[in-house]
Design goal:
842 residues; alpha+beta; eight-stranded mixed beta sheet; seven-stranded mixed beta sheet; elongated
Amino acid sequence: MTTLLQDIRYALRQLGKTPGFTITVLLTLALGIGANAAIFTLVNSVLLKSLPVADPKMLWRLGDKNDCCVGQNGARENGDYSYFATDTWEQLRKNVPEFEELAAMQSGFTYRPVTARRDGTQTQSRSVMGEFVSGNYFRTFGIRPQAGRLFVDSDDTKSAPMTAVMSYDTWQHEFAGDASVIGSTFWINTKAVTVVGIAPRGFYGDRLTSTPPDYYLPIETMTVLASVPYVHDIETSWIYMVGRVKPGTAMGPLQEKVNAVLRQAYAGRKDFTTQHGKTLLAKAHVTLTPGGAGISNMQEQYGDHLHLLMWIAGLVLLIACANIANLLLVRGMGRKTEMSLRTALGAMRGRIIRQLLTESVLLACMGGLVGLVVAYAGTHMLLMLAFPGAENVPIDASPSLEVIGFAFGVSLLTGISFGVAPAWIAAQAQPVDALRSGTRSTTSGASLLQRTLVVLQAALSLILLVGAGLFSQNLNKLQSMDLKLNSKNRYMVHINPQAAGYAQTQLEALYRTMEERFHAVPGILKVGISNYTPMEDNNWSNEVGVPGAPKTYSASFIKANSDYFDSVGTRVLMGRGIGLQDTSTAPAVTVVNQAFVKIFFNGNNPIGRRIGSPDSREDFEVVGVVEDTAYTDVRWKDHSMYFVPIMQRYPSDKGPIEKDMSLYAGAMVIQTERPMSDMEAIARRTLAAINPNLTVVKFQTFDEQIADRFTEERMIARLTSLFGGLALLLATIGLYGVTSYTVARRTPEIGIRMALGAERAGVIAMVMRGAVIQTVLGLAIGIPVALFCVRFVKTQLYEITSANTSVMAVAVLTLAVAACVAGIIPARRAASIDPARALRNE
């Protein structure tokens, strides 16, 4: 320990004597380690971190898919189920005692916000996130309240008073931690609910999402609060399940038992009573997956991209290590006399290597500390890129213990990696070298190791530049696609009439009032109303049949008013669009898109033809055809869609109107004659004047909504470009450093050449030749490796399967220009050497 402390003190003195070298190395390390630590912060939070609950290893999720959000159970061909009906949860909870607790939670709460207002306040109702959960939800996760109490089983019964648990963040941000919130009444979707407690700090629910729940509500209150008919419908799936297994439970037998109970629960359902259905019933199963990290929505969404970014950040760090190794090699050459004297005085080679490695590791650790600052800023940037506009993302940019440990481990590994070779070379100094007074040498250039490191940097830089080019090309390709939409002077106002307390029988009058009020605002041209809009994360679909056709196909459907097509810029190609005459009492009609015509009518004229459900295929008359426009995703090819007047129902549906959830609009599309910067305020005032509970769930321009669909692609393109630029800068600095060192070592030789009549241009060409050769070797290695690596990222690219000529050419040209810049400066310096001074110094 005494020797180690001596080495550290000596290393600090040596580093202090060369502040330029030390600062350069620290900044290089800070960028390399900081980039890796920033990416790891997201990887740890999204992919590795467990929920902040008791003993997360004992939690298991029933299912391995993110099926969302409400749908019919149906008999699936693959037999794999991940979301369920309430009845299925109740049967599993009753018949599988191996689960200490089995909790149920709403699968798609992020798509169904609620409105909330504290009783007695004059504030307007706010649209917030509410998640419906079972009474044993918090008990399953083993957490305790921050204040008040959490749900118990008796809260989740039909006769129980309506209660809610508020999230800690909502309690702090909206109510400043006011203790009187507990026990007070809130109006949730216009119904009185008592807040009984506050969820613990740091608990963000059962899944990682950019919009975690503000309120937790019992499942049994959903029928009243959300006015939905499916809570106890055995044919409708809408919940996820997470269970806590008892200690010592064997997962294999538990898996089989869960599957057996599932088949028993499904046996009497209509889709499984046919001969084919019975065959599919035998395949019905649930895959138990570790539930300690919660429902894996975000993990699936961001997993591939985060792994890619970790690899890219690792390559940047590798380039940084090569750069620092070169700096240490140059520094080691300058300390050759010192090492020779130490060897002559009896220092062992191992002792010298340890001293130099101590300096390297110390540098790396100091760089790691600075890198944590870079990581903090970098994580903030990543969060803004990944979740633009989100305010409550439960990911902390501050370095956690895991991130600090990661940064320390990377620093230690980095210090050893870039320090071993220079230390070994420096320790080879011979005692006799200390007796030589000069540095006479006609060396042909830098060492082989230095050249190898520069070639490696060039190759890695090219790979990252090609990657940046591919992802930038991917983003440009997606954004430049013709969406067949018109976003100019269009505004998206997302609403939730259901949460405002409107029954289905009141909606026709509400929509008429909304149209009249907004049309009365000067500057507003069109007021489209629909259940969802183009280029948002939403899709409703049904099985559709055509009379005389044996097969049915799935098609997306939209309920819309007469202004809708004009408001989003969709052109009617044949027949007519939805008109004012298409009221709830008018004959049922539909407008279909081109893809629908191609799939259902083989491209023939569909006007006057009829479509409907698989059991009743003449529900709607086709009155028009519109062009194919992009909706959920621009990658969705042959996206068949049909559009129905907003208040019309399937004529064959004889059920009460109160059960038809498709009548509720989810958005308005406002078209104006000019840009209106105050459109959001106008929308809020106009809706509040109709009903104070009719809140704006989300407001965006149409351009912003479209841009949101490319958030991940934009993040990857920007980050790969950033890392590619950083790698290019480091490689350029490395080539510049080696070339400058070569010129310094060859100063006497160049002086002699110039004294013998060598031209300046010849000297410049000689120096540039070395820089160009190293770059060409880097290209020779980097080009085939880059072409090979494309296969690993092509699944994240849209219709791009290889690095095309333009991307490769730009990457090669960029690296070549950087190499020329790095070489020309020392080359010009070499050509300016005074022969007489060079020989005199020699």
